[in-house]
Amino acid sequence: MSVVYLGGKAPTAEEKRWHDWVASQGCACCFGPAQIHHCVGSTARQSKVHIGQWFVIPLCDLHHKVPHGIHGDPRGLAADWGYGSMGRKELEKVIFFRLVAKYRRERDDYPLPADALRAIEMVPPVDVIYFE
Ligand SMILES: [Zn+2]
Ligand SMILES: [Zn+2]
Known about the structure:
- The chain has a two-stranded antiparallel ribbon with strand order 1-4. Strands 2-3 form a two-stranded antiparallel sheet.
- It has about 130 residues and is mainly α.
- The protein is built from five helices and four strands; from the N terminus they run αββββαααα.
- The chain has a single domain, classed as Herpes Virus-1 (2-Layer Sandwich).
- One zinc ion binds next to strand 1.
């Protein structure tokens, strides 16, 4: 599945490989055809490390966009998924680190640089409105 970029920073070849693998896993909620959701926006940095193109999760159109998706009703989505009242950032981190663990089991390797992984772990688990 190819990923379409509508603005923001274009990914490097390594980031693009990660996106393709993430999208190939199917929607994190329903396993339907997935698009890439940038959890903190494509240009975001944490602890001076560019994480925007690494911190991504797969979501289908319905579970991505307003009104039912993660951009519209993250708490409703978390409840539907069985994550209780988790906020958006917590939910994204849980899904993201599950994907990293799955990738590691399959490839015996990490999909992203160690500094980016550490920086993503440090993203505060609070809900912030991002436009992506
Ligand atoms: Zn879905
Ligand atoms: Zn999104």
